[in-house]
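User: Fold this; tokens only.

Assistant: Input:
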Amino acid sequence: MTASFDVYQRETTDMITAGPTLPSVFGASSPNQNAADLITTGFDLSVRWNNNGQLAGKQISYDIGVVLSDYTSRITKFNNPNKLLSNYYVGQKVGEIWGYSLDGYFTSDEEAKNWPINQSFVNSTIIRSPGEWSTLHAGDIKFKDLNGDNIINNGKNTVDDHGDLKVIGNKLPRYSYGINGSVRWAGFDLSLFLQGVGRQDWYPGNNADKFWGFYSRPYFSYIPKDFESQIWSPENPNAYFPLLRGYTALNSGSELNSPNDKYIQNLSYLRLKNLTIGYNIPQTFIKNWKRNQFKIFFSGQNLMTLTNLNTKYIDPEQAIAEANGRVYPFFKIYSFGLNVSFL
């Protein structure tokens, strides 16, 4: 067995990023500049083991290797004296996701009507709706008033005054790993490669239609197969999604567009990236082709993915790559073949 373990700390100075947040009257976004320093700590682990022996009177050999790595980064310098959450700030853990806490759904229209907490800051789409739908109803989301002021908002959007926000996750990958191994026995050989991420958080983007469905754009032509069963109704009060209202995941300042601790997703996954099985045909079956080798094989790519992502229609690596999961999908690929070696 061989193993290696490295622990490191890296300092990055004068990192190129958007400069300090500018007043809106400036009329343009802050230009990129060498504006930030950060420090990264992490580790890399690699272990490999191989052996051989006898199985059913025949020689068997096998080996397996595992790699695991992790890192975190913190900002150590940035010109943001008020520590606005909309930009880097000293002490920030890179990748932080700030959001709200939810407290279930309103169980009746009466409860929603008499709700003492002002949620208008996160209910902009509801407020703009016509007629009776401009008010809260049974099945709409209740937000937790974490600071006790009876108003749901982000305060001054700073570290010292963040209203009802809290850190609900981190979008950087943690505990990335890979596993590869092979076995050879009685003319058979098998090799496999698995990869994955132990933890990574993702809040679906406003156009993540394969997750939000009609809550984003009601006119989307794509409808997830099991979507109806996940929508709140009096007969389905514990549904995953609230009362169906269009655009509540699309428009800023709306309940589903506001990151929260219920709909944040865990992108951890384990993927069987490759599996190859081969068999060398014994010479007794190919007498007329002596001293030549024939091997039949099967190979598969992306055969299995285990994930905690709460949708069947977005791959975790799609979500890692783009906030709306709108990147080219991963396909399962099967290959069969015959290798002939002329000796």
